[in-house]
Fold this sequence. Notes:
By secondary structure, this protein is mostly helical. It has a single domain, classed as P-loop containing nucleotide triphosphate hydrolases (Rossmann fold, 3-Layer(aba) Sandwich). It has five helices and no strands. The protein has helices at residues 10-21, 30-46, 53-67, 80-87, 90-93. The longest helix is centred in the middle third of the chain and has 17 residues, at 30-46. The protein is elongated. It starts with 9 loop residues before the first helix and ends in a 5-residue tail after the last helix. The mean pLDDT is 88.
Amino acid sequence: MTDAQVADEKFLVLINDMLASGEINGLFTDDETTEILASVKNEVRAQGIEDTKENCWRYFIDKVRRNLKIVLCFSPVGATLRVRARRFPALVNCTNID
């Protein structure tokens, strides 16, 4: 994703949350959350962890963090990157800059 493709700055709030915590509040409905918890329950048990709702959710989030890669391409020319880095600190603090 390039910086020119960011049509609405609100999208960067979601990216910032994902980079900082691995979670986006309100992303899944209650039904989807229940399905996710049910799908990882056997994996959690196989790891020797008690399959409580909290442990299953933590396991799912950790699995997402290990496997999800986000590539952002922002131009360093101009003030846009500087402004976004101040407003969304995880864009700098939780990334590898190449």
